[in-house]
Design goal:
Elements (H helix, E strand, L loop, with lengths): L2 E5 L3 H13 L3 E5 L2 H10 L4 E5 L7 H11 L7 E5 L4 H9 L4 E4 L4 H49 L10 E6 L7 E7 L5 E8 L3 H20 L4 H15 L6 E8 L5 E7 L4 E5 L4 E5 L19 E4 L4 E6 L1 H4 L10 H10 L6 H12 L8 E7 L18 E8 H6 L2 H10 L8 H20 L12 H15 L4 E9 L4 E8 L8 H11 L4 H6 L2 E4 L5 E7 L2
Parallel strand pairs: 1-2, 1-3, 3-4, 4-5
Antiparallel strand pairs: 6-15, 7-8, 8-9, 9-10, 10-13, 11-12, 11-14, 14-15, 16-17, 17-18, 18-20, 19-20
Helix pairs in contact: 2-3, 5-6, 6-7, 12-13
Protein name: SpoIIE family protein phosphatase
Length: 549
């Protein structure tokens, strides 16, 4: 029911208006002057004000002005009731906020028509206000959620500022929480891993995949896993976690501690480039695979690109927001402008390239995240550690893993953590990890499971190899791997024996050389790091001596 406030100091006018409106079933309130009208409005929900102009205490001009100032969220119509006929009076009524006029003596039909017309306008205004209030509430909720997500995600990022000589990167989000992420970590043997990812969507939708993916990345780097294994694990996670229309285009790379080689898995991002310090392209690296989260584990593609690099080489990674930036003429920035920007200055910074993109955009709205990574292929110098005395306590321990434990545990990481807690051994963590991981993985893959690395030479060889590995692991019922470790403070040596229940594998030196050259990780690594490596006749046991000094 429309609620009308009649404001008039003349009793006859009030009575006449009230009678007319009650016959039309309106709810009525009465005020004798402008000040009383303001008091009524404070207490009751009024829809229309019929306001006389000339009144004592507070006239209609002042009352209308104050009403419009106080109740401006929703349209509250003021219809002046007046006997004034001069033009100046009408203009002043409009200036103070009047919305319409009705002259005395009152015409019932005209009065009712005006009230109905303004009532409809008020109802539309009320609905719009309700919708705006609801939208504001949801906007505040989303902003709050984004702030929480941004806080959590930023706290989950590790090591981004630890490699300033090697990494120059710029992330320019299109929204509070962006769909791009850049992860950095160093493995126990000193290799530098980076992942640049571009999730579909922004805000909460992107965060759903970014947070767990970052945890997988950091965990697997700490275990020294290969780049394609990391990609596979993240793919399995995202495929099970995200809906079909969501995925993550990504490039994952591993720079060797020597700074001389790079392994890269490229899935869905724009071309990467190897450039020299002057920005000239030495090699273009095209994406080879589909984005993470699209294929199931059986279809996943493992192939890597392996590159030789030097200290004058830079690797350029970017998301599609850069080349797809458009200007006010709706022209894309494109690949050629991007390559020209990289050549515009020796050792150009990522921020300078982003500034060039923004200058090209010429104020056009940023529709996507702009992310650029420049990796300088330099050796990774380990952080200097204060020398600590070696423990004088001799000790040894042994682990015996059965088939079930082999399937569900990775003992190397735990053993390395235990040894790293011993006084004097922390600084040798990387070498200890390398020795144990190579020996254990060879015992498992080639000893217990009987896999042949020659499979990797075939088309889709990596996929076939890991498919066979998973099948062999799932079928394995009886197996044993034993890890014996002994520390001798007199000789300052660590002694390891890794023995498996398999048929053994070839330890022939020519075979090891071939494996190492083809796949980058092999048994020859053991001989480079260990003081002494000895195999038994059947090849199912290796003894390692690692000298601490």
């Amino acid at each position: 029911m429309t609620h009308v406030l009649i404001v008039d100091d003349q009793a006859l006018n009030r009575i006449l208006l009230e009678k007319m409106l009650l016959e039309e079933n309106y709810k009525i309130s009465i005020a004798f002057n402008g000040l009383e009208a303001l008091e009524v409005l404070e207490k009751e929900a009024i829809d229309i004000v019929l306001l006389d102009v000339l009144m004592p205490v507070m006239d209609g001009f002042e009352a209308a002005k104050r009403i419009k100032q106080r109740y401006n969220d929703v349209y509250l119509p003021i219809i002046f009731i007046t006997s004034l006929e001069d033009q100046n009076s009408f203009e002043r009524c409009l200036e103070v906020g009047g919305d319409d006029f009705i002259q005395k003596p009152f015409e019932k039909v005209i009065l009712n028509a005006k009230i109905k017309a303004h009532s409809r306008t008020r109802e539309l205004s009320k609905k719009a206000h309700q919708q705006n209030t609801l939208l504001e509430y949801h906007r505040n909720q989303i902003e709050r959620e984004h702030e929480i997500i941004e806080h959590i995600f930023n706290n989950s990022l590790e090591n981004q500022d630890k490699f300033n000589d090697h990494l120059d990167f710029s992330l320019s989000p299109a929204s509070m929480f962006n769909g791009d992420m850049f992860l950095v970590a160093q493995s126990p043997i000193g290799n530098l891993y980076c992942m640049l990812g571009d999730f579909t969507g922004h805000g909460l939708a992107a965060a759903i995949g970014a947070l767990p993916a970052s945890r997988v990345f950091y965990t697997m780097v700490q275990k020294g896993m290969a780049v394609n294994d990391i990609a596979s694990e993240i793919n399995i996670l995202l495929h099970s976690l995200l809906p079909e229309h969501m995925f993550c285009a990504a490039t994952i790379i591993e720079l060797s501690a020597s700074g001389k080689s790079i392994s890269a898995w490229l899935g869905g991002l724009p071309d990467a480039y190897l450039i020299n310090t002057d920005g000239e392209v030495k090699q273009t690296l095209e994406s080879q695979h589909m984005a993470l989260g699209i294929l199931d584990s059986d279809e996943f593609e493992y192939e890597l690109i392996n590159l030789e690099v030097d200290k004058n080489t830079r690797l350029v990674l970017s998301t599609d927001g850069i080349i797809e930036t458009n200007n006010d003429a709706d022209i894309f920035y494109g690949e050629q402008r991007f390559l020209a920007a990289l050549k515009s200055k020796p050792m150009i910074s990522s921020q300078r390239v982003i500034d060039n993109v923004n200058t090209f955009a010429n104020g056009s709205e940023q529709l996507d995240d702009l992310s650029l990574v420049l990796l300088n292929c330099l050796p990774l110098t380990p952080e200097p550690e204060a020398k600590e005395a070696y423990s004088n306590l001799a000790f040894n321990f042994s682990l015996s893993l059965n088939a079930q434990q082999i399937k569900c545990t990775d003992p190397v990481y735990d053993v390395v953590n235990v040894l790293s807690s011993v006084e004097g051994l922390r600084s040798h963590r990387s070498n200890i990890f390398l020795l144990l991981s190579e020996a254990y993985n060879n015992a498992l893959d080639h000893g217990v499971l009987g896999l042949d690395s020659d499979i990797k030479k075939q088309d889709d060889g990596f996929f076939k190899y890991y498919e066979l590995r998973e099948q062999a692991l799932s079928k394995m019922k009886e197996a044993m791997i034993i890890i014996d470790m002994r520390y001798c403070p007199d000789t300052l040596c660590l002694y390891f024996i890794i023995c498996d229940s398999g048929r053994g594998f070839s330890s022939d030196s020519s075979k090891r050389t071939e494996l190492n050259a083809e796949f980058g990780r092999g048994l020859s690594l053991l001989e480079e790091v260990a003081e002494k490596v000895t195999y038994n006749a059947s090849g199912n046991q290796v003894e390692l001596c690692y000298k601490l000094l």
